[in-house]
Amino acid sequence: MATTPRHLALAAATALLAATAPTTSTAAPAAPPAGSAAQSAASPAAPAPHIARSAASPAAPAAHLAQPAASPALPGATPASVPPTPPGWALRWSDDFTGPAGTPPAANQWLVDLGHGYPGGPANWGTGEVQEYTSSPSNLALDGTGNLRITALRDAAGRWTSARIESRRADFRPPAGGKVAIESRIRLPDVSGDAALGYWPAFWALGAPFRGNYWNWPGIGEFDVMENVNGLDSVWGVLHCGVNPGGPCGEANGIGANRPCPGTPCRSAFHTFRFEWDESTSPAQFRWYVDGQRFHSVDRTRFDATTWANMTSHAGYFVLLNLAIGGAFPNGVAGRATPTAATAPGRSMLVDYVAVWTAGGTAAGWDAYAEIQAEQATARSGGVAEPTAVTRLKNGDSLRFSGVRFGSGTARQFLARAASGAAAGVSGLVEVRLDSPTATPVGSFAIADTGGWQSWRTVPANITGVTGTHDVHVTFTSGQPAAFVSVDWLRFAT
Ligand SMILES: [Ca+2]
């Protein structure tokens, strides 16, 4: 996406015309008209919170659930799913957007941005875009066939609404010496010509320190995996970094490249957009792909050490999906203000999946003393893998975590965040074993009903001292066949 506090950089307004024709190889978002800065000063705060948990929005009426036919799949809305993880890679996070038509994206995966900016952040999301983001199912909903649908709408008064979501997780980065891939399969809004003026769909990522600050852009880094404006058959990949204006990323444009979508126009079919941050190469490299074809890359050698550290040495990145209307980028490419009276409302961006994988690295495995997420187990037998936990574990089930590093300290305690909605009389043991699922447990705790499957508590257990690196097997033992525990995460302590 474009950027954020960019619009406050008055000096950058002169760069507006730098973003021109869609064939310009480095045309990325340009600065908005200087007038937007005045708007920002005049509207210091919006009345409503701008980020809300999607769970906080009103639930869709039950009627929505019973009427998937009311949301017919759009042309090209071929159901698909997160592709299999290739050898050497590990799936770190994903959402397939599976669920009933009209329902919101999973609240435990996504934050829903609302209004015209973050609380205390720049107006118009820093880009000059004009729409209001909402959590209304008419703007933001699953389509019932495995896609997220974001739709731009215009009311009778000419006001635009749309939607923007961002991942709760903000730790997407390569393991030391490895690489991370951030990928989504998207069908862009099916609109072109004058009817498309102002449409600005994007799939992108921002550095974790941006969340809650909102004024440290672009130093914290921004990877625009896919941007598209005005219905053109073009995908832009852009890196933003350093300072604004100017700096090593040439802000506010950033370092970008663009090309048409392979085979079919971006707006006519699903295409796969992928970004890789590769620390296994020398120099390290950022790469952009569409349908597996690389169209942009940026090497670490372009940056001074401080700029590189500022965008790569934090906790990682969170991903965003949005459909903006108007703003600096579409204006700059169109050479005029957008949207116009000819812009057609009601067109949707369809997102089949978002997935993040990592590969390689010297830090494979787990730090025993950090939270080890149950759903990321190297192997699982039984239970149900959900986005943030493994649920409904029962007697005989197990989880394996390969390469848990205890280091030189001696771990003497095991802790797990667990919940149980087991019936009266049902209980079981959560056991830790090293290097074999049948080894004698080094420790365990018993658990029964905690008050429900969502009533989480952190349960400690003493273990015999452990050092070094081991495969940790967590096994579940009960005298009853019913599920007795769900596990969110586990960790060790000295
Ligand atoms: Ca899907």
Keywords:
494 residues, mainly beta, Jelly Rolls, 2 domains, 10-stranded mixed sheet, 8-stranded antiparallel sheet, 4 helices, disordered N terminus, binds calcium ion
What does this structure look like?
- This protein has 494 residues and is mostly beta strands.
- 6% of the residues lie in helices and 39% in strands.
- It is built from 4 helices and 29 strands.
- Strands 20, 21, 22, 23, 24, 25, 26, 27, 28 and 29 form a 10-stranded mixed β-sheet that branches.
- Calcium ion (CA) is lined by residues 80-81, 96-97, 146-147, 352-353.
- Residues 80-81, 96-97, 146-147, 352-353 line the site of calcium ion.
For the terminal residues, how far apart are their CA atoms?
44 Å
The gyration radius over C-alpha positions equals: 24 Å
Q: What class do helices, strands and sheet pairing give?
A: mainly beta
Question: What is the mean pLDDT?
Answer: 85
The global form is: globular
Classify the fold: give the CATH topology of the largest domain: Jelly Rolls
Q: Classify the helix fraction into a percent range.
A: under 10%
Q: Using the coordinates above, name the CATH class of the largest domain.
A: Mainly Beta
